[in-house]
């Protein structure tokens, strides 16, 4: 994710002064040296970094900060405010005409995601602003550019105007204006041609379109992955066309983000939108204060709530909430919630927006988590409607059928059932349908729990190394079978055979009570199946 490395370096710099009882010029100099290196490594323009550090130092060494009870927090605030100043003092938005048609010209180099960004803005204006949008395919240079825009337009139910690749971009724009007026469109977005680099032919064509369209906004699309080249491209386009705003794409990639911090202060052109994914709804309004929060690792809970409101089906959420009030939570409810979570996109991206939790988000593996969620969905979909609403009926034969239908092991089915049991208990507690258990019971439940449809360690990139470490450092090893090559399930089976309780097994092996229970349930299921097979043969 963009700014991840910068966030880590800046937080490291702040830690160096957080333990100091008093700020001095020396520890401030040391901290600012780290800040300077952090910004330069993030590919922020040198002159911007120099000015930034000087401003922070001047304000941080002021008497008000030095005399404050918590000077380190004051310094963090100063850095936050300076970051916001770099990004823009206030939010920038498309300026719509009070009456008539607003025109937007999308420009940029080839490969920056300009056509996709055009469709994303159209989708944003249609759904959030209730605008009657027309997309115009003016890129007659790049092969399949028109077809791409048509496909995107169809996916968001927005009309795309084109005269075909044989007609010039200027003529297409001219006919599109007349077409849009006749059909009372109030927003027209022109997707123009790009080049691999800025050349005279490109600029001449864009100048002609500008003179014809007289656009209310000229938005430049830039790729976050290009670093300081954002500034260079923005300066040249601005000199030629007087651009009014920026759309920064590929913010979800491994970008250092320095160009974004530099471009506003150098060009004085505001960022309007950032694109953080490939889907048509992966577009965010740019808020300088929120971006400053993210860079400093403070999360962005406001944006997360806004995304939830846009993407989640509130009727589903309301229905689930009403059922939970009644102490009811079944596999149908769990399936609905898994669907809602998948709509939100990347789990890592969501957790990055939550203060406190964002620091552990980097340890998550989105691919593993998505795989676990799909497995859980497959298990639930393999059940009958009766089984989903009545999980207590799930005995050995039903579990075997469900596992085969979902292409998983019976153990996976048992694990999901166990997790649903825990969620049902919490639902009943919140609804007042059952008494509060003692603290030890809650702790045991917590140890064995996890996210719906996931094992205790699902999604953790460090899962294997943690498990190995536990084995090496475990004390009071009760069995000879505790060796590097013996899996946990075998150890659980042996301890269970010796008559140890679930809690004792969990404590001895250093695993959650819930995890131990799932394994023992699996062992018992196998025994039942074997006994029934033996009886059948007799």
Would you mind describing this structure in some detail?
This protein is α/β, with parallel strands linked by helices and 538 residues long. It folds into four domains: 4-87, SRP54, nucleotide-binding domain (Four Helix Bundle (Hemerythrin (Met), subunit A), Up-down Bundle), CATH 1.20.120; 102-299, 3-Layer(aba) Sandwich (Rossmann fold), CATH 3.40.50.300; 300-461, 434 Repressor (Amino-terminal Domain); 462-538, no CATH class. The chain has helices at residues 4-18, 25-41, 46-60, 63-66, 71-87, 114-128, 145-156, 169-182, 200-213, 229-241, 258-267, 288-295, 301-311, 314-325, 331-343, 347-352, 366-381, 385-389, 396-406, 410-431, 439-448, 463-473, 488-497, 502-509, 513-537; strands at 102-108, 133-137, 159-161, 187-191, 217-223, 245-249, 271-275, 283-285. Strand 6 (245-249), helix 11 (258-267) and strand 7 (271-275) form a beta-alpha-beta unit. The longest helix has 25 residues, at 513-537. The relative contact order is 0.08.
The named CATH superfamily of the largest domain: P-loop containing nucleotide triphosphate hydrolases
% residues in beta strands: 5-15%
Number of strands: 8
CATH architecture of the largest domain: 3-Layer(aba) Sandwich
Shape: globular
Count of runs of 4 or more consecutive helical residues = 25
Terminal-residue CA separation:
62 Å
- Which residue ranges are poorly predicted, with pLDDT under 50 across at least 5 consecutive positions? 445-484
Order of the strands making up the biggest sheet = 3-2-4-1-5-6-7-8
CATH class of the largest domain: Alpha Beta
CATH topology title of the largest domain: Rossmann fold
Please give the domain count. Answer: 4
Radius of gyration: 29 Å
Structural class: alpha/beta
Main β sheet profile:
8 strands, mixed
Q: What is the helix content?
A: 55-70%
Mean pLDDT: 78
């Amino acid at each position: 994710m963009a700014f991840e490395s910068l966030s880590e370096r800046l937080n490291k710099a702040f830690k160096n002064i957080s333990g100091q009882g008093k700020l001095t010029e020396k520890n401030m100099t040391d901290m600012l040296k780290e800040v300077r290196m952090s910004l330069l490594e993030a590919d922020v323009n040198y002159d911007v970094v120099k000015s930034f550090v000087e401003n922070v130092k001047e304000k941080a060494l002021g008497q008000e900060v030095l005399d404050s009870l918590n000077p380190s927090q004051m310094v963090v605030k100063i850095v936050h405010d300076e970051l916001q100043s770099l990004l823009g003092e206030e939010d920038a938005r498309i300026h719509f005409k009070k009456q008539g048609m607003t025109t937007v010209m999308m420009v940029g180099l080839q490969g920056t995601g300009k056509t996709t960004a055009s469709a994303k803005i159209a989708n944003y204006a249609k759904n959030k602003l209730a605008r009657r949008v027309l997309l115009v395919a003016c890129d007659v240079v790049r092969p399949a550019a028109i077809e791409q825009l048509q496909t995107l337009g169809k996916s968001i139910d927005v009309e795309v105007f084109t005269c075909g690749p044989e007609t010039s971009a200027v003529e297409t724009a001219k006919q599109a204006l007349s077409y849009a007026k006749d059909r009372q469109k109030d927003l027209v977005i022109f997707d123009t041609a790009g080049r691999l680099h800025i050349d005279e032919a490109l600029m001449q064509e864009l100048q002609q379109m500008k003179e014809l369209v007289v656009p209310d906004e000229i938005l430049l699309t830039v790729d976050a992955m290009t670093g300081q080249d954002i500034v260079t491209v923005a300066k040249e386009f601005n000199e030629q066309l007087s651009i009014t705003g920026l759309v920064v794409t590929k913010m979800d990639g491994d970008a250092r983000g320095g160009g974004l911090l530099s471009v506003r202060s150098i060009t004085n052109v505001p960022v309007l939108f950032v694109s953080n994914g490939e889907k048509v709804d992966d577009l965010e309004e740019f808020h300088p204060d929120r971006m400053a929060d993210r860079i400093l690792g403070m999360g962005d809970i406001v944006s997360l709530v806004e995304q939830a409101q846009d993407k989640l089906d509130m009727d589903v959420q309301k229905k689930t909430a009403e059922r939970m009030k009644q102490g009811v939570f079944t596999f149908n409810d769990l399936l609905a919630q898994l669907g809602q979570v998948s709509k939100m996109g990347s789990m890592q991206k969501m957790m990055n927006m939550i203060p406190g939790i964002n620091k552990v988000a980097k340890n998550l593996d989105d691919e593993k988590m998505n795989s676990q969620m799909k497995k859980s969905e497959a298990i639930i979909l393999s059940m009958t409607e009766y089984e989903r609403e009545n999980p207590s009926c799930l005995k050995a034969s039903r579990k075997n059928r469900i596992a085969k239908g979902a292409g998983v092991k019976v153990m996976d089915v048992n694990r999901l059932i166990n997790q649903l049991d825990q969620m049902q208990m919490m639902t009943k507690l919140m609804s007042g349908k059952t008494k509060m258990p003692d603290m030890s019971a809650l702790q045991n439940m917590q140890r064995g729990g996890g996210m719906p449809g996931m094992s205790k360690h699902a999604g953790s990139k460090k899962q294997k190394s943690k498990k190995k470490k536990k084995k090496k450092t475990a004390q009071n090893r009760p069995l000879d079978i505790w060796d590097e090559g013996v899996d946990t399930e075998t150890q659980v089976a042996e301890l269970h055979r010796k008559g140890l309780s679930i809690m004792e097994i969990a404590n001895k092996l250093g695993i959650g009570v819930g995890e131990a229970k799932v394994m023992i349930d699996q062992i018992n299921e196998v025994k039942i199946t074997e006994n029934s097979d033996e009886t059948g043969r007799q």
